Structure formats: C-alpha cells, structure tokens
Task: structure prediction
Amino acid sequence: MSAEIVSTGTELLLGHTLNTNAQYIAERLAALGVYCYYQTTVGDNADRIGQVIENALNRADIVITTGGLGPTMDDLTKEVVADLFGLPMEMHPDHLAKIEAFFQRRGRKMPENNKKQAMLPAGSQAIPNHLGTAPGVIVEQDDKVVILLPGPPFEMRPMFEETVIPYLAAKTKINPGVLHSRTLKVVGPGESVIENRLRDLLTVQSNPTIALLAKTAEVHVRLTARARTETEAAALMGELEAEIRQRLHPYVYGVDEESLASVVGALLNERNLKLAIAESCTGGYIAHQITNVPGSSDYFLLGVASYANSAKENVLAVDEETLRTYGAVSPETALAMARGVRRLAGSDIAAAVTGIAGPGGGTEEKPVGLVYAAFVAGDKEEVEKLQLFGDRVTIKEKTTYAVLNRLRVYLTEEARP
Result:
C-alpha cells in the first residue's frame, strides 16, 4: 500500500516555515510499512490544491495532507477534498461545542469564523484535536483515502499517533514492526570520512540498509531492516551495528533519541561528578544544551556567560594582565576562565570557551571561527584549539558539540581500568 504526503501553505513555499510535518509523517509511514514515493508542497490556492490532491490520488492509495484546516478564508483543504469527492459540507454541533469550550477555557469569545472548523465533508470521520480548534478528517471513497491534518506540528503529531496510526494499521493489516530503524550518532569525523570507512558496507547492504545524514555538528548513521517482527529486524541489524561501531570507534556517542548532552549527563551521574561551565563566544548555549536534559540539576552546578571582559575579571577572577597580554581569545584566558568557574562553583570538572563567532571581529592572526576550549578536572588541565567554519550560529553549535564531546571522552577514559 502506498501513501502520498501533501503539505499546503504558501509560507512553506516562501521558506518562512520549515516543513517538519512531511519528515515526521514519512518516518511514521515507513515504520508502518506504508510506501511513500511522492511528497508535494502547494500554496493556499483552491485550484492548485485540488490538482495536487487529484494527482496524488491517481498515484497512491492514501493521501495525507497537512495545513488548511484553520478558520480563515485561505484555509481551503477540507472544501477542496469535499468537492473532489462530490460531498457536501455539514455542520457538526459536537465539534462546534468543543471549539466554543476551547475559547471559554481561555476566557475568550469564539470568533464567528471559527464555526468553519466544525464543518466537515458528509460521511467523513473526525480526528479529535485536543490541543487546538481544528479537528482532522478521514474521507474514504471506493478504494481511496484522504486524511486531513492541521499544520501546527504540536497539534498534528498527537493526532497522528492517537488516531491515524491505529487507523492505518487496521486498514493496511501490516504489522508495524516490519520496518525497524536504529540511528547511531557520530561526533568528530565528517560525513566523507565516515563514508570512506563504511564504503563497502554502503554498497553491498540491502537488508539492513545504511544511510548517512549529515547534521551541523554530527553525522547520523541510520540502519533500517525489514522483517516479520521488530525482534527479527533487530537481530538482522545486530552484527552490522557491531561492525559499524568498531569501524567508527570511538566516535559513536549514542543511539536514537540520545543527545550528546544526555550522554555526558549520564556519565557525570554514574561517577557522581559535578560540572560547571564558563562561556564567552557561545553565550550560554552549552549550559542550555546541558539543562535541556531532565535531571541535569543532579550534576550541573553553574553556568556563567561571561561575554564581556569585565565579567571575566569580576565574576571569574581572570587576571586583567592576562586579558591585556594575551587577549580575550587565547589559551591563557580560556584556562583562567575554567579555573575561575571551578572555584566559583566548587565543581569536580569545569570547561570554558572563548572565541570569535563572527561574522566580524576576526583578524589574520585570530580569524573568525577560532575557539579555545579549556578543561580542568582533578590535577588535569588542558586547552584545545579549534578552527571552525560557518556562520555565527553554526560556530556556536559546533563549539558546543566539541566541548560536550571532550567531556564525554574524558569521562569515558576515566572509567577505564
């Protein structure tokens, strides 16, 4: 059985909004064993939406749309689908009552145009929306199905999980476990280096398959196996995963939903160690990543975003002479920042970064992307020089990953006999 994804919204075509819905739905369809050969994005125009959905219905058994279920004049998807199937639109009083209650809970009066969201194609099945005002819709006719979902991802995803997946599983009678995926997360080498190390596997593997996905500061190696059950699929991947881990050692830091920050946090917890961070060029981004992990207060004591030199002096006790002689971006200043934040927090481990994130501020001697990262733990002190490339945000993100990975390596080495 095949499905096609149609994303509506002019904002997607203009690049104002990133289309994460299509990625999410495609991934969930693959897990269900439903093939997806086409994805289309179309603006808020009734004729073009109708043409795209009609073409999709000619190619696929199931069409899943996102967007166009709102209360405004340019929300057209339901009406277009109803017209394609020759169905009248009907008011659903129960859904109207839910929409009115949604506004009442917020102490507001429902605008008149929200009544439009309670209008559904005759004979269709509604998909409950617990987080917004737009119910989704399932329309069936002959052997074709159109599933309409709202555009906001925080509304769409729960609706897909709670209603669409059980519906598709029942309709397709495909065991959702036929396709099993596992993502190995790699930090350090780039995509081309990883491809060279895995080249023979990439060319000969058919089940499981291997795919590389380059991110800003890491690379994901995705393994996908097809089998009758998830257990069988996982067994198929076991030997291949072990081979990949051996070839990429020690750069695989985690799998699937694990983040580099969560892995570092788990290692700190295991060793009962406390961490403090001092940041200049990253402006608190390292601490942000660390504290995104639930329970990080167990091991993270303090983060200081000492952006100005005065903050480095007054908060971290970096000597004025150090700043004057070597500059804010120097191994000496980075090390002084790490020592300072460790004293301030009373932590076991401290890390500090200072650098030039750009786009201005660089010189021939100290170009944009130059970063010094210092680490202090026990009687061990070190400073690492990084020369990174990219825009300001990319350099901040790459610096953050470099620091977290250095902490991971240190904590892993400490665990060895």
Summary: The longest strand covers residues 35-42. The domain at 177-255 is CATH 3.30.70.2860 (Alpha-Beta Plaits). Residues 392-414 form the longest helix (23 residues). The CA atoms of residues 367 and 400 lie 19 Å apart.
